[in-house]
Amino acid sequence: MKRFMAVIMSVLLTSALMVPASAQEQKASEKPKDLWSALKPLDTIISFLNTGAHPDDERSDLLAYLSRGKGVRTASLIANRGEGGQNEIGNELGNALGIIRSRELIEASKVTGVTVYHLSRKPSDEIYDFGFSKSKEETLAKWGEQTAYERVIRMIRTYRPDIVMPSFLDVDTEHGHHRTMNYLTVKAYQDAADPSVFPEQLKEGLKPWAIKKLYLPSDQKNATTSFEIGMMDDVYGKTYPQIGEESRFLHKSQGMGQDIPAAPRTINLKLEKSRVGTPGKEQTLFDQIPYDFKEYAGTVNDKRVKKNLVKLQEEFEGMIEEYPNRAAIAEDVYPAIKQTEKLEKLVKNSSLPTETKSDLLFRLDRKEKQLMDLAAEASKIDVRVDLNQPVLVQGGSARVTVTVQNNGKQTLKHVMPALHLPTGWKQVGHVPKTKLKRGQSQKFTYGIKVAKNASYYQPYDPSVISASISYKVHGTTAQKTYEPEQTAAVLPDVSVKNDPESLVVNTADLKDSIQVKVEAKNNTAGKETAVLHLNAPEGWNVTNNDQEITFQKKGEVQNATFTVDLPHSVKEDDYTLKPEVRVNGKQLSTSVQDISYPHIGTFYYLYDAGTKATAFPLHFDAGKKIGYVESGFDSVSDKLRAVGMNVVSLEKGKLESADLSQFDTIVVGIRAYLSREDLLQNNSKLLDFVKNGGHLVVQYHKPEDKWEAEKSAPYKLVIGSPSIRWRVTDENAKVTVTKPEHPLFNTPNKITDSDWDHWVQERGLYYTSDWDDHFETFVSMADPGEKPFTGGILMADYGKGSYLYTNLVWYRQIQNNVPGGYRIFTNLIDYSKEQ
Predict the structure, then answer these.
(1) Calpha distance 765→703 (Å, rounded)
(2) Under a CB-based contact definition with an 8 Å cutoff, are residues 702 and 722 in contact?
(3) What region, left, alpha or beta, does residue 706 occupy, with left being phi > 0 and alpha being psi -120 to 50 degrees?
(4) Is the bond into 748 cis (omega within 30 degrees of 0)?
(5) 15-29, 72-86, 159-173: lowest mean pLDDT where?
(6) Whether the bond into 324 is cis, omega within 30 of 0
(7) Rounded Cα gap, residues 263 and 266, in angstroms
(8) What single-letter DSSP state applies at residue 457?
(9) Tell me: the pLDDT tens digits for 489-547?
(10) pLDDT surpasses 90 at 223
(11) What is the mean pLDDT of the segment spanning 33-40?
(12) In this structure, how many other beta carbons lie within 10 angstroms of the beta carbon of residue 390?
């Protein structure tokens, strides 16, 4: 009967949506959401896996319906960390952005009640977001098809889903990463059940797993399964699409989430493959799959097992009917735990077929864990794990306090925390078991000693410290594991970071020396003395090396500036200036980037310290004054200043009052029309600057970045949509300069084919699809086999000045020290109509 409730609910949807939102919210506020989210999973034994490529690829509305609405054990398997994307909340890119996006996905999935898994295991993993791709062939080549596929199979055999659905189709209008995850998911449907595929996994204890159904996204015409998810949930006071959007708001770095009204929404899916019947029209997503233990009992021959499965499910149903009576549920959950444990023993000792026994034991184990979570929630047991210092060092010490508060009505007996620490770490002290009556709390304090060879913090690993709390109620033992409120991180005794981390050695105007500042931060408990050393390339001389620094306390930062004398001539190449700190008998050279935002918390990115120095000739007019309208999404202005250009940042609030006539050129940062309301208000002022003889360079924008095709530029300029079709993703795509004699390619730098070499990630994003005849085109480029784009650089005279729009990804090139990126962009901003 339960499987047909979705059909019934769709009939009731219209009347449910007629209830005012305020009434729904008031009704929902009377029902404890946390209790329901722990209770509802007892309703079914079905599991569902959604696969995607990037954080934010999850089908949030559907997952909210399955998890929150139906109680289905639901997970997302995401390939990479989104490192190649853009960032709308800061300037972190690459691995640092990947950490942000991974944490955003975890926080978003807490809203929908979904467990998150990734194929990517560490920063700079093989399965990396290398930017937009138009083909799965390119993606598989870069990820390594065998590596990616082994991890997909491993995850399926670990999670053991009944139903699997990729978020996207394998069609040529889709992102290559999306197509790849579809391809791997569909292929894995058959191979995950085949013991000859990756047999080494079986030796590790995994078992082949036969997915029951594989669904693909579909339109209504081709769907075999269509169901309504737009109904209002009485507990949450929202529809499932609204819950999904609530979760998507947490993908802040990607600008996700929108307020949507309560409205019908139909999910259309196509049953692509099935082991439980012939693919065809279905009444529900769950047809032919045992929905709960009662239906599962119908598939087993052992009478005792059958009887106890039915009895257990009836216990679950009884608790669900008791909601929202917390006290009643708290009384019933502990006998249900004991009953589940007894049933597990019965199954182990039964004569059921091996495959059935393995499957049933797995489902019972999952259900026991859900009961443990429900017990802690129903009994209102609040646990907090705190560290006196979350930043740890090898061989260091810390104190862990576990606070257990009994806010329920039952007495908790034999309350005992157990710390879980990595191998080689030591727990200092022993805490006896205790009893907690209603309203009582107890603090358990432990000392810990970090192993001298402890691994440094890895942002995608589970917490190095956790605590499980075990207790007894009515003679039944229950337990649950908790992680610290703060991020526990083993960091180097002293971390070092160069400033700058990249620089240009201009061989066209070679200086006698350069300066590098090294910032050192003490992560040890107290006073420390260290020596800073800067390793330089052969022939480069550090005149004031081996500087001693002294720290007085943990967290203190000390700086040392090194002068590096350059040789009389420097070959065009990349060089590294590597800092090293000598402390406590160690030689350390690791940078630590703190990543902290209110919606995700604080995390760290550890990487090899150093300065990348790139030597090449760069000509520019140091007398020209350049204004830069900052968007917050790039650091190009800093890079231009560092090479000696006279760049003034026009930050928020400065544009309206600034005298723009002082500038020769004004540059607008990427997507500034999105992030700068004052830019929208003063756009006419910028156009007047051009009309009066100035040169304006505008970098790329998305169509939705408040860009107005008829107003933002002096003449019509349309940004292509959908964006997937208007980009060149191959960073090595051939570029044809159509007007090589133009000053843009001759002054002040003579541009050659080599200036288009060694680009990173892509050539251009969000190409223009249409423009006024006043605009002149200069370059042509395309991904292999595609029609070339000619609008990568567009320029038009306007009044006495000139307006240039370019969607090429200069910021990635400049921020990665690509010589040609610097040289061509310098020409673009150096241009004047008088040339």
Answers:
(1) 11
(2) no
(3) left
(4) yes
(5) 15-29
(6) yes
(7) 10
(8) P
(9) 999 999 999 999 999 999 999 999 999 999 999 999 989 999 999 999 999 999 999 99
(10) yes
(11) 99
(12) 15
DSSP annotation of 147 reads H
User: At which residue do the structure tokens 């005149």 appear?
Assistant: 543
Token pair of 821, please? 């990126």
pLDDT digits (tens, 9 = 90+) for 82-93: 999 989 999 899
- The token duo for 727 is 């980009």
Domains of the chain: 2-291 (3.40.50.10320), 381-489 (2.60.40.1230), 491-615 (2.60.40.10), 618-830 (3.40.50.880)
Two structure tokens written together for 219: 């339109």
Q: Which two tokens stand for residue 230?
A: 């737009």
CA torsion 288-289-291-296 (nearest 10°) is 100
Measured CA to CA, the distance from residue 425 to residue 422 in angstroms comes to 6
**φ, ψ at 8 (rounded to 5°):** -65, -40
- State how far the alpha carbon of 85 is from the alpha carbons of 88, 203, 548, in Å: 10, 38, 41
Cis peptide, bond prior to residue 722, ω within 30 of zero: yes
Give kind and range of the element (H or E) at residue 29.
Answer: helix 21-29
389 is written with which tokens? 């210092």
Residue 89 Ramachandran class (φ > 0 left, ψ -120 to 50 alpha, else beta): alpha
CA 628 to chain CA centroid, Å, is 30
Q: Read off the pLDDT of residues 339-390 as tens digits, 9 standing for 90 and up.
A: 999 999 999 999 999 999 999 999 999 999 999 999 999 999 999 999 999 9
CB atoms within 10 A of CB 267: 23
pTM surpassing 0.85? Answer: yes
Q: Which is nearest to 727 in space by CA: 658, 786, 779?
A: 786
Q: Which two tokens stand for residue 90?
A: 């800061």
Residue 124 · residue 97 · CB < 8 Å = no
Say if residue 772 is exposed, middle or buried (CB neighbours under 10 Å; 0-12, 13-18, 19+). Answer: middle
Q: Residue 209 CA to chain centroid, in angstroms?
A: 28
Helices (H), 254-383: 293-297, 303-322, 326-348, 354-378
Query: Are 410 and 473 in contact, with CB atoms under 8 Å apart?
Result: yes
Task: Give the whole-angstrom CA distance, residue 230 versus residue 213.
Answer: 24
Residue 13: per-residue pLDDT: 44
Q: How far apart are CA 510 and CA 513, in angstroms?
A: 9
